[in-house]
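Lab intake sheet, docking and co-folding queue.

SAMPLE TYPE: protein with bound small molecule
LIGAND NAME: zinc ion
LIGAND FORMAT: SMILES
REQUESTED OUTPUT: full 3D complex as C-alpha cells
PRIORITY: normal
SUBMITTED BY: R.K., bench team

The fields below were copied directly from the construct record.
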Amino acid sequence: MSSDAEEGQPSEDRRKYEFRKVLDELDDFEGSGTQLVTIYIPDDKQISDVVAHVTQEHSEASNIKSKQTRTAVQDALTSIKDRLRYYDTYPPENGIVIFSGAVDSGGGQTEMVTKVLESPPEPIQSFRYHCDSDFLTQPLEDMMTDKGLFGLIVLDRREANVGWLKGKRVEPVKSASSLVPGKQRKGGQSAQRFARLRLEAIDNFYQEVAGMANDLMVDKRHDLEGILVGGPSPTKDEFLDGDYLHHELQDLVLGKFDVAYTDESGLYDLVDAASDVLADQEVVKDKRQMEEFFENLHTGEKATYGFEETRRNLVMGSVERLLLSEDLHHDVITFTCPNGHEEREVVERRHSTPDHECTECGEPAEPGEREDVVEHLIDIAEQRGTETKFISTDFEKGDQLMDAFGGVAGILRYSTGV
Ligand SMILES: [Zn+2]
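RESULT FIELD (auto-filled):
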C-alpha cells in the first residue's frame, strides 16, 4: 500500500474498502495469546520521533519475563522500524497506522503479521502506542463509518455551542453566552418591565445563536445529512418553534434532544442522545439506494444485477451507480481455455480455485488471475466514472442484494439490454 500516495489516487470508496478488509482480518487475530503492537501516527509527527519511541519500547521490552512474549514484541517493533524507513520526515496526509505482532497461525504455530495503512479517511488526532492482546482497531473503525456530516447546536438561555459531527468525530466550532438576566428582578424595576426586558434578551440571544449556526452551516447545507438540536426544555423548543434558523437549515433538523450541558461537552452529549436517530439515518441512505434500484428494475430496464451482467455493463460504461453488498467476501478467478475464450467464476474467499470447463467449447480452462470481487469491480468502475455504494445487510432489501443478486447490482445510465 505504500506506493498509493505517489501513484494516482485510489478513490475514497476503494481505500475505505481496503481498510475495512484489513480491519476485518486484524479483528480475527484477537486473543492470539501474545502481545500485539499498534501505532497511530498523525501527519504532523516527525518519523524520527516515532523511530525513537519504538526504539525505547524495544529496549523496555527486554524486561518482559516470558521469553516468547518478549521475542514477539521485539520482533514486532523491529518490523515496525523497518516499515518506517520508507517514509521521509513526515507521514503522508492524515497519518499512518501500523499493526504488527505474532499471531496464531494454527497448530500451535505463530506467524508475524505487519500491516501499514496510509492516509485514513480522517486525520489521526494524536500519537498512540498500544501494546495489548489485540490490535487497536476501534479508532480506524470509527473513521470508516460513513455517517457523513451533521450540524450540532446546543443551547439554554445562558450559553450555546455549535459544531460538527464528522463521521464519529465531534468538532466544536463556536460558542456564545447571553446577557439574559436571571428570573430574580432587582429592586425598583417594575415586574412588567422586567419581564419584557427578559423576553427581549432571550429573543436576542436566540437570534445570535441562529446567526452563529447560519454562518457556519448555510454554506454547507447541501453536504449536511442533518442537524441535531439539544438543550433543556423549553429552550430548544422555543428556539425551533420560533423559526430563528435559516429555513433551509430548519428543514434539515432531524430532532431535538434533552441534554443537561450546553458547553462544549453538551455537543458530545447531544451525539450520544441522538444515537438511535443517527443509526437510522445511515440505514436510511442505504434503503434509498435499494429502493431506487428496485424501482428501476420493475419499471424500466435501467437496472442490472449479478456479477457477470453488472460487470459487462460496467465495461460498457453504462453503470451510473454500482451497488455492492458489505457482506460480499468473494474472489473472482479469470479462466482461459485453449481456444482463447476468457471466462470468470466467483468463489468464496476461503475456497480453493475450482476446475473450470469453457462454456463455449467445453475444453478445460486454465485459471489465471484471482482477485477480490469488490476490488475487481471498483477498478472498472473507477475507469468508467461510475460511483460505488456499499449497502449494509441490516435491512430487508439490503439482505436481498446479497442473497438474491449475489451482492452485486447497478443502476444504469441508459438501458443496454444486458
Ligand atoms: Zn473455450
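REVIEWER NOTE: The first strand starts at residue 36 and ends at 41.
SIGN-OFF: pending second check by T.M.
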